[in-house]
Write a structure and sequence with these properties.
By secondary structure, the protein is of the alpha+beta class. 28% of the residues lie in helices and 31% in strands. A hairpin with an 8-residue loop joins strand 8 and strand 9.
Amino acid sequence: MNVLFNNVEALIQQAAKQTQKSKSKLLMLSGINPSQYTRCVSENRLFSNTMLESLAGSEYFDVTYETLAAWKAVDEYSKEILLKACENTDVEKIENLEQIEGFYRFPCRGAVTAGQMELIDEVEDTVYYEWADVKEYSSDMFCLKVRGDSMSPLIPDGAIILVRPSQTYRPNGIYVVQTDQHETTLKLLKLSPDGGQLIPVNKNYSPIDIQDFEITRAFEVLEYKVSFQ
């Protein structure tokens, strides 16, 4: 949920560069309280329509209200489907996890297909992978092994990905999504008010239209590695 914020930030940075004015100064001159703007960003809250009207009416930002509203609609849609998916996501927490010499150990829950939609292949015996420099650790993180080449060369067949349940949408972020048919795939997730697509990196594969199914679970890919030594 940050399409609107990212685009507005880009507009502010461009205006600041052109006018040599600070971000706070530009917001105030546009009739927006800088503290209110910062609070919306820090608390991951959608901008109000009044704020959008102020941005569109400002002489400093080259953007229409219709464009701002369209960006907001993407965020509202993504928030709705990902929060719904998160409600259905029951992940076993990692209890008493120890960090040793800068490393965390995460369990591998199974394999996910980077190709056509398939059922997730769960493992019988849990394997753990060590991961260094985890920026935002939480006990619901886990690993999956990638099968297939639809995300190659970015994430090749056999790579290990570190994921966690997602409640927010990162534009063109990489997600493991599960549908109402209990099928799972690894793809770039691109959302729009009309639905969206799951997009492969490998051009030999075609995008999958989200309109054809319902996303019931969503996991954001935080990091990935080709191999562990």
